[in-house]
Amino acid sequence: MTTTTAARNSYAGTLALAALAPLAWGSTYAVTTEFLPPDRPLFTALLRALPAGLVLLAITRVLPRGIWVGRAAALGVLNIGAFFPLLFLAAYRLPGGVAGVLGAVAPMFALAFATVVLAEKPNGRKVIAGLIGVFGVALVVLRANAQLDTVGVIAGLAGAASMAMGTVLTQRWGRPEGVGPLAITGWQLTVGGLFIAPLAFLIEGAPPALDGRAVGGYLYLGVIGTALAYFLWFRAIAEVSATSVAFLGLLSPVSAAVIGWIALGQALSPVQVLGLGIALGGTLLGQMVAKPRIAPAVVVPRVPVEAR
């Protein structure tokens, strides 16, 4: 197997694992509506992030030092602390799936941020892929009675921009030497959870009583939908193109629609099925135009026969 082929296979494998993250995030709606207390989005965000982050810190036993104290704080707020509340605010203020469409704009933000932060040249085909993805998601989640709310729209766009910037900066800064993606994930989840905690208690008050179903739902969101999902997400960003990873986010609303159809008995119209196919096409196109990072070949100078 050549070096190029091996690199491409590794690249594809990393993206395939990273795709499990948005697929897991797509289950959040079903778990929230079926297992968790109603009207507690910030409390749910808090329990998703902080316990998982603390557990990962206990496992890795590595804390950020030096410049990484500030970097971990910035990434934790962008990827978790600000993103979660903005996402929930948009979902509550925007009926009809508009929030899902705004979230699908994240790859476009990532392309713009990568141009400035990573000095990546704009790629026309990726822009087209992003527009195709947004269109496909719109067909899946939008309803005829969808209404716009200024605060909700701003929150939805800000949330998408926050996650996109966090994704790009995660690649720009990489990881400290000797620190693995599990530790980086723990730092960000802990910072994000600590950022959300005062908001949750100030806005929603004391925590609600939890039954066995709620505990199970929170465990699933914390372990599968957060700790494992973000580990795979951050791991991929460190190894492949951040913009390619961002395009995988289009799979989240697709996953939510499919889970709603299978688990909740929600019907899918022909237009929604078409939208699923278009969104998947945009996701794939966003990966196909990417080039794997291949380490440069080591050139060994030839030694003249006389010198041997």
Which properties best describe this structure?
308 residues, mainly alpha, 14 helices, 0% strand, globular, disordered C terminus
List the helices and strands and how they pair.
Blueprint: H1 3-25, H2 28-35, H3 41-60, H4 67-81, H5 83-93, H6 98-103, H7 106-117, H8 124-141, H9 150-173, H10 181-204, H11 212-239, H12 242-247, H13 251-263, H14 270-288
Helix pairs in contact: 1-11, 1-13, 2-11, 3-10, 3-11, 4-9, 4-10, 5-9, 7-9, 8-14, 9-11, 10-11
Stretches where pLDDT is under 50 for at least 5 consecutive residues are 293-308
- CA-to-CA gap between the ends? 31 Å
Q: What is the tally of beta strands? A: 0
Annotation field: number of helices = 14
Overall 3D shape: globular
* % residues in beta strands: under 5%
Q: SS-based structural class?
A: mainly alpha
Structure description:
This protein is mostly helical and about 300 residues long. The protein contains 14 helices and no strands. The chain has helices at about 5-25, 30-35, 40-60, 65-80, 85-95, 100-105, 105-115, 125-140, 150-175, 180-205, 210-240, 240-245, 250-265, 270-290. Helix 1 crosses helix 13 and helix 3 (about 40-60) packs antiparallel against helix 10. The radius of gyration is 21 Å and the shape is globular. The model is unreliable at about 295-308 (pLDDT under 50).
What's this entry about, in short?
The protein has 308 residues and is mainly alpha-helical.
